[in-house]
Each structure stands twice: as C-alpha cells, then as structure tokens.
Specification:
single chain; 413 residues; mainly beta; 8-stranded antiparallel β-sheet; 5-stranded antiparallel β-sheet; 6% helix; disordered N terminus
C-alpha cells in the first residue's frame, strides 16, 4: 500500500522504498510524521568506502571508519546505551543507515522475504517483529502433520500436530491432547527434532536439504551430503520446511509399509532414507541410512535404541508417555517400555518413539587412559591403552597405532 504525503506510517513496520538510490530496498520504520519517515536500511555507500565499493550492501563498521581516519561520534539511546555512530554527517544505528525519506515514496510491506531483511536480522533490531515476520513467512510452508508448539493464550507451551492451515485467514487447526483447536498462525511455532529431514527455504543455502543434528534456541544445525562428502550448516529455524524424498520408505500410523524399489542405487540414496539390505549378513534387515561413504557404501544405523535408553512415545495410544526401554524386539520392530510415571509396561513400535537419553556407561569411563587387553580379533592377546569409549565401539592404541574395536573385543584387567 502506497502512502500519500499527509499520511503517517506506522512505526515498527516494514516498507519498500520506491524512489532514490535505495529503490526496491526494504527498510524498518523508526519514526514517522505526515511528510517524512526515519527508516533503517542496509547502507550501499559508507563514508570510508572507496568509490569502486559503491552499491554493495554492507553494515557500518566503526573500526574500519577509525582505520580510515574518519571521525565518528557515538549515538546514545534514551537510557544512555550506545546504539550507533555518526560518521561523515550520516547516522548508522546497529550498522544500518538511518535516513529520512518522504512517506509518499514508501510502500508498506506486511511480509518481506527473509533475504530482503537479512541485514536487519543480523543487526538484531526489534527482535519481536523480526521473529514474527520470519515465523509468518515460514508458515506458508507448513503442512498437515507438522509438529507445532503454541506460544500464546491458555494453551501456551502445549505441543500438537497441524491438522489444517488456512493461509488467507492466517489461522490453523492444531490437534492437541486429542482435541482440535483453532489458533492464529502468529501464536504457533514449528517444532523440530534431531533426525528430522528438512529443506532450507531462504538464505545462502536455499534449496539445500539435510537432516538435523543439533537444535539451538533460534537456529538448527543440518548435515548436507553432496558428491559423497558432507557439510554441517547452521540456519535459522524459521527458514526450513519439512522435506520428504519421494523414494523414502515411510511407515503409516498403523505400521503399513509402502513397497521399496527392487534396488536402490547409491547415487539415488540420501541420509535419512529407509533402506533394506539385500546381500550379506544383514539380508532382510531394514533401517535408516546414516552415512554414505566415499566408496558409495551405505551405512545403516538401523534402530538406534537399546535396553536402558529413555524414550518418549511420539504418537499412538500411549502418546505422550515416556519411560525406560526394558526389551527390544527387532523381529517385530517393537519395544517394551516401562512408564516412569505409573510403572505400566507398554509395547510400542520403534517408529512411534524418539530417544530422550541413551543408557550411560559412565562407570566404565574410569578406564579411559588405562591399559586394557584385546581379547578377540587379529590383535587378540595384545595389551593396549583405552583412548575413548563409545556405545558399540572403542578406540585403543596398540603399539602406538590407533585402531577401533568392538566393545566385546576389549577387556579390563
């Protein structure tokens, strides 16, 4: 919506500049009168920049200004906190250019693309507005079945599943505690778990897909795999969407299975896919691909759960109970779990749970750095030094050479 000269723009809002050298850029409105608005934009020319750098968007850097011997003066907030600098007759707040612009050359933008406000995001201005904007942008990519957390109202803190999304009305239906609730999109946040496969929808990694290996307050870490190599990237949790590969075998709520193709080629497989072994000692076994090595060999982590692990039921009649695994039945792909609340033993499909905590071998950690005996394999009978202890494998030093052994191949004195 374009504003006329006698109208006042709402503060703490996004606008697009229609004229001047910043034409097409998105700005943040700090103040407004009926004629002009004070807008923060990513500067395209800085007082200390050489002419050939003109036009490049970059935040103001006070250290570079001082190196160039350009005078700078601090800008203080009403509370006396330094929020920016005056340099070369221009004001820069949080690294952004503070510029007065006629309101009739501005147009309000409800939902700018994250790439268009990337400098504002990095600058950390008005975090509530930035988070609200990014979350609403993300909501365009939500789909039925996504996990959601309610952020406002009487149900604040509750998690549920998206049953329906109405983008035009900016609302969604959430299934929570076996009830359906209609919520505003701004009241909801997506919830991700380690192991989820997602696709990046904005930023420098847009279009990349990977699986989540770490979760932080505002960001997530993904593993991407290309040409048999992998890279970790960290992106905002608001710029990813659920990603499902067409060739991935999935299990329905009742355990029904889609048919696998007869052969899955290595260059068609991705981490997170479900695969079945057709040759070798694990023929017939099925699990999730964790890694594809340089020799195109697929490594299968299978069902990464063991007796003593603590798990939470993510769906089904026992949702959202959690407890300790008492028994694992790989032939039926099910677990016996003892509920920590009432002691009831539940039998649930492995695919219906997610791991909260692994069984700890903390008592064995005291042997790290000490001598042990190799009791199986081609190094049987050798004395070694235990360097690290894993859940299935350990690293030991034998005659100064590091080798990896199964835990049952190593014995303490």
């Amino acid at each position: 919506m374009a504003f006329k000269a006698w109208q006042v723009l709402p503060t703490r809002s996004w606008v697009q500049i229609k004229k001047s050298r910043y034409k097409g850029d998105i700005g943040y409105v700090e103040e407004s009168t009926d004629s002009d608005a004070i807008v923060l934009v990513a500067p395209c020319q800085l007082p200390y920049d050489p002419p050939e750098e003109s036009g490049k968007r970059v935040r103001f850097n006070v250290e570079l200004a001082r190196i160039a011997n350009v005078d700078v003066m601090p800008i203080l907030s009403s509370s006396g906190t330094e929020i920016g600098h005056t340099c070369g007759g221009q004001q820069f707040v949080h690294g952004l250019f503070r510029v007065p612009i006629p309101v009739n050359t501005l147009e309000t933008v409800e939902l700018p693309h994250p790439d268009d406000i990337r400098f504002h995001v990095v600058a950390g201005i008005d975090l509530p507005l930035v988070e609200q904007t990014l979350n609403l942008f993300s909501a365009q990519f939500w789909r039925e079945g996504d996990s959601i957390k309610i952020q406002e109202g009487d149900l604040r803190g509750k998690t549920g599943i998206l049953a329906d999304v109405d983008w035009h009305k900016r609302c969604a239906v959430v299934l929570c505690d076996e009830n359906a609730f209609e919520c505003k999109l701004r009241e909801l946040h997506r919830v991700f778990r380690i192991g989820d496969t997602v696709e990046v929808i904005a930023g420098p990694f847009c279009g990349e897909a990977g699986y989540i290996v770490a979760l932080h307050e505002r960001t997530i870490v993904l593993v991407m795999q290309h040409d048999k190599t992998s890279d970790n990237i960290e992106v905002s949790k608001f710029v990813v969407q659920t990603h499902l590969n067409e060739h991935v075998l999935s299990l329905g709520p009742e355990g029904d299975e889609h048919q696998l193709p007869p052969h899955l080629l290595a260059d068609e497989a991705l981490p997170g896919d479900i695969a079945e072994a057709h040759h070798g000692p694990y023929t017939g076994q099925r699990g999730t691909i964790e890694w594809i090595g340089p020799d195109s060999k697929v490594w299968d982590k299978g069902y990464n759960v063991a007796v003593g692990d603590t798990v939470e039921v993510a769906r089904g009649p026992w949702y959202p109970s959690h407890g300790m695994v008492k028994a694992v039945d790989l032939t039926k792909a099910s677990l016996d779990v003892v509920c920590v609340v009432d002691g009831v033993q539940m039998n649930v499909p492995i695919t219906f749970v997610h791991k909260m905590k692994e069984h700890s071998d903390h008592g064995l950690l005291k042997f790290v750095g000490r001598d042990v005996w190799v009791i199986a394999g081609d190094k049987k009978g050798s004395r070694a030094t235990l360097c690290s202890l894993g859940r299935m494998f350990s690293w030991v030093a034998v005659f100064g050479q590091m080798i990896q052994l199964k835990n049952n191949q190593v014995a303490t004195p």
